[in-house]
Write a structure and sequence with these properties.
Aspartate Aminotransferase, domain 1; seven-stranded mixed beta sheet; alpha/beta; Aspartate Aminotransferase, domain 2; 411 residues; 15 helices
C-alpha cells in the first residue's frame, strides 16, 4: 500500500520553532559537568565555582555514601530487576522505607525511584474525575502535571493566598478535595505556612499533599523537614497530610518518598501507576540513602554552616546598586532568587559571571513567570565564606560594568 503524506509535514516546522525559542532567549543547553572539590565543578571542561546544585548539605560526594553504595553492589548487584510488586522490593529498599518513616516521624513511607514520578503518580491515585484539586500558582511542574493527569477539576489559587484558597474550598461541592503545595518553593525559596494550610484542610475535609523537596534534610530538628519544622510530626501528625520529599538534593543520592497515614500509603502502593508499573530503584541507592539518613541526623554543624552562608549572601546583596531593578526575593532557605527581569538581561548576567569563573544559572519562563527571569543562587554547606564573598564581588562587577545581550543559554 502506498502511504501519501500531506506536504509540508508538521515535522518541517521543528527547526523554525527552535529558532523561535532562540530568538526569545528561551533555548536551553546542557552542560557537561564533573564534580571536583567543595563547591567547585568542571563545566564543559572549565573548573568553576558553582551555585547551581541542590546538594544543600554537600553530601553527594561524601565518602561514606560512596562506600555504602560500593558495598551494596556485592550483596544486591546494580539493578533492581523488576517492579516493587513483582521482584524489585529488596531488603535494602524495605529497610529504607521503615527508616524514612521513623526519620520524618510519620506512620509509613513508600520509596520511589524519582521525585517527578512520585507526584505525577500519587495525585491521580488520590483523586479523579469529579474531584477537586487546589494548587498554589507557583507549584513545581510535577505537581502541576500530576493534577492534570488526575482529570480532577483544578482550582489554581494565587501564590500563598490562603484567603483565596479558603474561598475556593468553601464553594467546592466535590466530595474529595486535595490541596497540593510545595513546602519550600523551588524558584522563590519561601516556606509556605503549613499549619494554616492544614487548618483549612481540617475545616473543609481536604487532604494536604506537601512537596518538601527543598526542605528535607535542611529544615526542622535534625533535618527532618518542613513538616517537623512546623511541629506537625510524631504525636501531632495528622492523617490529613501526605508528606513527599526527594532524596537527590540534601540527601545527596536519588529517588523520593511519600509518608503519612498507613492506610493512605497502602492505597498509594495499590493504585499509583508510576510505582506499580516501573522498575524499582536499585538497592545500592537505598543502601546509600540509609547511610545518608544517619549523616543528616547528625549534621547540625552543616546546617549551621549553610544558614551562615545564607545570611552572608543576603547581607552582601544589600550593597548592590538599587538602580538596576534587581530584586532579591524573601527567603530564609538555601534557594536565593535574584530577580533580574527580562530573559535577555538574566542571560547576560549569567554570562558575565561565567566569564569570572562562576556558574549561577539563569532561570526563565516557563519555569518562572514572564518578566521575572532570575539568577537562582543555590547555597550549600560545601560553600565557604570566601566562596560567597567571591560571588558577591562578581555580582558587584556585573552591576558596575553593565550587562549586554549574549547568545549563551542556561540549562
Amino acid at each position: 500500500m502506498t502511504v501519501v503524506h500531506a506536504s509540508p509535514s508538521w515535522l518541517d516546522d521543528i527547526p523554525s520553532r527552535l529558532a523561535d525559542l532562540d530568538q526569545a532567549h528561551l533555548l536551553r543547553r546542557r552542560r557537561v559537568v564533573l564534580p571536583t572539590e567543595g563547591a567547585r565543578m568542571q563545566v564543559d571542561g572549565t573548573t568553576m565555582l558553582a551555585f547551581c546544585s541542590n546538594d544543600y548539605l554537600g553530601l553527594a560526594q561524601h565518602p561514606a555514601l560512596a562506600e555504602a553504595a560500593r558495598e551494596a553492589t556485592y550483596s544486591f548487584g546494580v539493578g533492581a530487576g523488576g517492579s516493587p510488586l513483582v521482584s524489585g522490593h529488596s531488603a535494602a529498599n524495605d529497610a529504607l522505607e521503615h527508616e524514612l518513616a521513623a526519620f520524618v516521624q510519620l506512620p509509613r513511607a513508600l520509596y520511589f525511584y524519582a521525585g517527578y514520578a512520585t507526584n505525577t503518580g500519587i495525585i491521580p491515585a488520590l483523586v479523579g474525575d469529579g474531584d477537586a484539586i487546589f494548587s498554589d500558582a507557583l507549584n513545581h511542574a510535577c505537581l502541576i502535571d500530576g493534577a492534570r493527569l488526575s482529570r480532577a477539576t483544578i482550582h489554581r489559587y494565587p501564590h500563598a493566598d490562603l484567603a483565596a484558597l479558603e474561598a475556593a474550598l468553601a464553594t467546592s461541592a466535590a466530595r474529595r478535595k486535595l490541596v497540593i503545595s510545595d513546602a519550600v518553593f523551588s524558584m522563590d525559596g519561601d516556606l509556605i505556612d503549613i499549619p494554616a494550610l492544614l487548618a483549612l484542610c481540617e475545616r473543609y475535609d481536604a487532604l494536604l499533599l506537601l512537596d518538601d523537596a527543598h526542605g528535607f534534610g535542611v529544615l526542622g530538628p535534625q533535618g527532618r523537614g518542613s513538616l517537623a519544622h512546623a511541629g506537625l510530626t510524631g504525636a501531632k501528625a495528622s492523617r490529613r497530610v501526605l508528606y513527599m520529599a526527594t532524596l537527590g538534593k540534601a540527601a545527596g543520592v536519588a529517588g523520593a518518598f511519600v509518608a503519612g497515614d498507613a492506610a493512605l500509603v497502602e492505597w498509594l502502593l495499590q493504585k499509583t501507576r508510576t510505582y506499580i508499573f516501573a522498575t524499582a530503584a536499585p538497592p545500592l541507592l537505598a543502601t546509600a540513602l540509609r547511610k545518608s539518613l544517619e549523616l543528616i541526623a547528625t549534621a547540625d554543624d552543616l546546617r549551621h554552616a549553610l544558614h551562615q552562608r545564607i545570611a552572608q549572601l543576603r547581607n552582601g546583596l544589600t550593597t548592590l546598586p538599587t538602580n538596576l531593578g534587581w530584586h532579591l526575593l524573601p527567603s530564609s532557605t538555601a534557594v536565593q532568587a535574584l530577580v533580574i527581569g527580562s530573559n535577555e538581561a538574566a542571560l547576560a548576567v549569567m554570562e558575565n559571571l561565567r566569564q569570572q569563573g562562576l556558574w549561577v544559572p539563569a532561570i526563565r519562563p516557563p519555569t518562572v513567570p514572564a518578566g521575572t527571569a532570575r539568577l537562582r543562587i543555590a547555597l550549600s554547606a560545601a560553600h565557604t565564606e570566601d566562596d560567597v564573598d567571591e560571588l558577591l564581588v562578581a555580582l558587584r562587577h556585573c552591576a558596575q560594568s553593565g550587562t549586554r545581550p549574549v547568545a549563551t543559554a542556561s540549562v
